[in-house]
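pipeline stage [seq->struct] | target=DUF1460 domain-containing protein | organism=Aureicoccus marinus | residues=283
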Amino acid sequence: MIRSFYRLFFLFAFCCASLQAQSALDYQEEDQRLFEAMVDRLQSSATLQGPTSERLIALGKTFLGTPYVAKTLEQEGDEQVVLNLRGLDCTTYIENVLAFDRLFQNKQSALEEFGQQLEYIRYRNGQLQGYSSRLHYFTDWIRNNEQKGLIKNMTAALGGVEEERAINFMGTHPQYYPQLSAESEVKKIRKTEETLSKEAFCYIPLDQIEGIEQQIASGDILALVTSIKGLDVTHTGFAIWQGEQLHLMHASTSGEVVISKKPLREYLKGIKKNMGILVVRPL
């Protein structure tokens, strides 16, 4: 009797520990339906057996027409892993495509496993530990996911130029971020910003893109560098070659996930305060 009690006690304790280890997943019934439809359609697709670049383009195209929705990760209360397939912003589009690729490459198919892939990509060192653990700045996102072995920053190798840049927009404008109402959270963000600002900022200027364009591959992640004080990047998407022209496949603020009608260099000319790009290659 006593042995049975202790067995049950330790089983209960183990289950509780397992539940605590898995971060809360925030999704709606429609997200689950969309996820299951995606898995059914693509899990055995021959397209997903090819090189990384081909897989990402195929996955990226499945989201074409998905509405653009800003700030889908900004929820009330404690930070959770948000799984929203109904509407995407430019970063969550990238993250969802990468997460689906990792899911299929790992022979996984459960919604909870997809949530774990999102968490691994979206948060510092792959673990949700509060709002400040989210990789808010895209240069931070790049550096941390490069450390995880998921991507390689190609910018310097393509002839990018370095400059000193103070990245501190969130820390100097906490009023724009409801989750930064607590001073303790602001301090954590500022600590991250101090680290980012100490590192050299490397990018490919607008007038140099033509010279390196042929070295950009379909499936590369392109991040648009801004001159806005305190920021690094304001938009991102996937490079995609259409015939002999390089375009951008992205969650466009104009309304939905699209492939840009204009070639990349022409498209960038229409972006206010754009200085150039970062080029990142998924592995």
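stage status: PASS
auto-comment: The two ends are 54 Å apart (CA to CA). Residues 2-21 form the longest helix (20 residues).
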